[in-house]
Design brief:
Blueprint lengths: L1 H15 L4 H23 L6 H6 L7 H15 L4 H6 L1 H13 L21 H12 L14 H21 L6 H15 L6 H15 L10 H8 L1 H13 L2 H30 L4
């Protein structure tokens, strides 16, 4: 795991040292937000080409369009929530859910309560697994269900307290990648909302990477890397996190690190295109 952390740090530093970042950092940030949103929506079942996301203005027509629209809203606002995140992560998570579902939804911004269940993660892979089962193939191993709402709320409070205490004490000790991966994994494990937990967990990881100073300009879209690695690998890595073992946790952190390095590669390509005058 230390090797994965060090590799990520070196990759991010190289990107921040690119000559384009001296003049056009804001443009790189905007492009990273767009590409990250497209990839996060793809992981939630709305796999649209980048140019389709770029040209569209109406995201309310159907379920896929609403998924893409929610991911775009989250990506556009995530960086602005940093000051609130530092003292109230739960408030930010509620805001991310509202952005994901739209403020017209009755459950917008409200965590699960009572006997409410969370929707399944990885819809694309679930569809593939159903197809394999129908064809007589092996069925993918299912993730365990989300914990009951009261347990999820209690664990979410504990996570928020740990993050707040870390902010008060200064971001030292635990590497940023590890903190971001734990927040990401814990939110996927808890699924605190009835829907859209995947896009919220990935946005929270992005906010942590900004807050911890590893990616202060939000130019490293880890969501792109997660989509490139695929939902099957994402699910297997998450199972490692859910196992609670040292090896499982190391595998999850390594997966998040690999995704972040692929995000760095994506933005490096954007910088190179800008340097050649292609963007």
């Amino acid at each position: 795991m230390p090797e994965a952390v060090a590799e990520v740090r070196r990759a991010v530093d190289r990107l921040y040292g690119h000559r384009v970042m001296r003049r056009r950092a804001a443009e790189v940030t905007s492009e990273a937000a767009l590409r990250g949103a497209r990839a996060s929506a793809a992981l939630d079942g709305a796999d649209w080409p980048l140019e389709e996301v770029r040209r569209r203005s109406d995201f309310g027509a159907d379920a896929e369009a609403r998924t893409v629209g929610g991911a775009l809203r989250i990506s556009a606002e995530a960086g602005q929530l940093l000051s609130v995140w530092r003292h109230s992560p739960l408030q930010v998570l509620a805001r991310l859910h509202l952005l994901a579902v739209g403020d017209a939804a009755e459950s917008a911004g409200r965590p699960r309560h009572g006997s409410e269940d969370a929707e399944a993660l990885f819809p694309l892979e679930l569809k593939a697994a159903e197809g394999m089962a129908a064809a007589g193939g092996a069925e993918a191993t299912a993730l365990p269900p989300a914990p009951p709402a009261d347990e999820a709320a209690a664990r979410l409070d504990q996570l928020a307290q740990l993050l707040a205490s870390r902010t008060e004490g200064g971001a030292t000790g635990t590497p940023a990648l590890v903190v971001a991966a734990v927040v990401h994994g814990e939110l996927l494990a808890l699924r605190p909302f009835g829907s859209h937990n995947g896009v919220i967990a990935r946005a929270a990881q992005r906010i942590v990477l900004i807050a911890e100073g590893l990616d202060p300009k939000a130019i490293c879209p880890a969501e792109v890397g997660l989509a490139e690695l695929g939902t099957a690998a994402y699910r297997v890595a998450l199972q490692g996190y859910l196992s609670g073992t040292a090896d499982g946790m190391a595998a999850w952190i390594s997966h998040c690190g690999q995704a972040l390095r692929l995000g760095v590669r994506e933005s490096t390509a954007v910088c190179e295109a800008m340097q050649r005058g292609m963007v």
